[in-house]
Amino acid sequence: MYTSLKKVIEKTSEDIRSKGLWKTEREIQSPQGAEIIVNGKRVINFCANNYLGMANNPAVVEAAKQALDTYGYGLSSVRFICGTQEQHRKLERTLASFVKMDDVILYSSCFDANAGLFETLLGEEDAIISDELNHASIIDGVRLCKAQRYRYLHHDMADLEAKLKESQAQRIRLIVTDGVFSMDGEVAKLKEICDLADTYGTVVMVDDSHATGVLGAHGHGSLEETGTEGRVDIITSTFGKAFGGASGGFTAARQEIVDLLRQRSRPYLFSNSLAPMIVGTTQYILDHADTLDGARKRLHKHTLTFRTAMNAAGFATRGESHPIVPIMLGDAKIAATMAADILAEGIYVIGFWYPVVPQGKARIRVQISAAHTDEHVQKAINAFTKIGKKHGII
Ligand SMILES: Cc1ncc(COP(=O)(O)O)c(C=O)c1O
């Protein structure tokens, strides 16, 4: 019986290989950080979502050990059976006040938060209006929901408005967007989106995974950055990036939304509780959120230095001020070869090409961290300049 499945798998695998899209994972022999050991060689890491340098911060590691000692390793349960510790509710309340929402519900990941959101709230008489570049977890969450689907052109407010007009017959309409687009480092036009939502009487949901802890004067995210706090109805986000980088996610929303999610959201009901150590460590990070201002300032200073130097050198970048800095190269082979050459210079970056990004828009995505030093950033600029010249890009 298995022979037929094996044939199908081999055909699909060959298809992926023939397009040059087969991914190989490089093994890291060190904790995550600004400098890591890759294949036995020390390199400077410019491809992690470790925005605030929390992933291997000694105080964070210590907080994790303490949480382990106090609350144990595992819970062996989902939340509603015997998997809710006092610290889960405490973290939910702390997060709710951090993102200025009524309440928060924790998930094992933001992927799960997005997977469990839409089908809980919406039915076939409703509509979801989604930016075409939204994250895969939003796309999958939307697929699970029976609501009518509308996709608007990325960042295109005229097209969003057209879709709002088209969907006027639907009972509830939910505009869905990433707060920051992960492949482009662009912040969503939340002010314009909220204005359109007001005009057309729709609800707004933002996935703030790349903005929580990163954007806004206090790190509250893309809503704080764009002055739209209080205008968005639902936020989802992750602890897997700025807030420690381990795992875990959440949905923050109005009280009745969170209450219903606790009753009906399938990844919450049917998947294990967020591990005690992650809950305790995230609580520690949030309790010290006001001490993160220095890290956030360093992050943005490095980002400005890098973006300015790269643009001056003649590279085409995307986005304006986010620490995700895509270096646009167009051709997949150039992106792959340049990333390998830059790694040989001791700078770890990754090329992205179709289908992860649109056809012909291959790029190297650089991600800056507060853990980087001025010297790290300069070395990255030097390596890009040297390899960019070698390949005739600049
Ligand atoms: C915009 C966005 N949403 C959701 C996720 C998924 O987050 P998690 O790793 O917590 O599942 C990611 C991670 O890559 C992301 O970039």
From TrEMBL:
Key words, A-Z: Acyltransferase, Pyridoxal phosphate, Transferase
One GO-annotated biological process of the protein: L-threonine catabolic process to glycine
Binding residues for substrate: 135, 365
Enzyme class name: transferase
Cofactor comment text: Binds 1 pyridoxal phosphate per subunit.
Cofactor(s) needed for function: pyridoxal 5'-phosphate
Residues binding pyridoxal 5'-phosphate, per UniProt: 110-111, 182, 207-210, 238-241, 271-272
Limits of the Aminotransferase class I/classII large domain: 42-384
Role according to the record: Catalyzes the cleavage of 2-amino-3-ketobutyrate to glycine and acetyl-CoA.
Subunit structure: Homodimer.
This protein's name: 2-amino-3-ketobutyrate coenzyme A ligase
Organism: Candidatus Kerfeldbacteria bacterium RIFCSPLOWO2_01_FULL_48_11
Gene symbol of the encoding locus: kbl
